[in-house]
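Handoff note, outgoing to incoming analyst
You'll be picking up this chain. Sequence as last confirmed:
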Amino acid sequence: MTAIGAIFLLIGVMALLGGIVQKMRAGRLGETPFAPTGQVGAQGRALADAKGTISTQGPQVQTQGLRASPLSGAQCVYFAWQLEVEWTENNATQKYTVMQEAQAVPFAVNDGSGPAVAAIDAKRGGEFAVTKPFDKKKFSRGLLAAMGSKPIEVTPGFSIPASVQVKGALGRMVDVSVTATYYITE
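Most recent structure output, in case you need it:
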């Protein structure tokens, strides 16, 4: 019976923590001034709060062109992805960022009252309601595949090279172990 009680206690604590996080996010959004897109387009930063934030929404997104994510191929106004590698050597875990990229295009949102132009700083990103098709996907070669030195095909448009080097301590290049595990987040 104690094991069942402990499980319910753990579930309750996890639900409470999840609720607190959601309340904090909702609190930030609730404190952000909201205006129709036409008003944001006309008055811009004059409507923003002390932090320079403003909220608007609209069913129409207008852009000169979209960017295709190199991993999922999804058409985006903003994407960011990162490839990390991890392996154990001499009882020490080695973890490095192999590659990362972020791109954004200017776009406008329109609720019918006029467009509000938005520009995302690709280096800073933002808080978006998006899908993450490669949220911490895991890839590894396995011993047989490692012997053949073939790239790991993640998607038809993106592969992890057969041999990878990362910048280690003091800027020296380190060969990644063939038994390493790769993690991709988009």
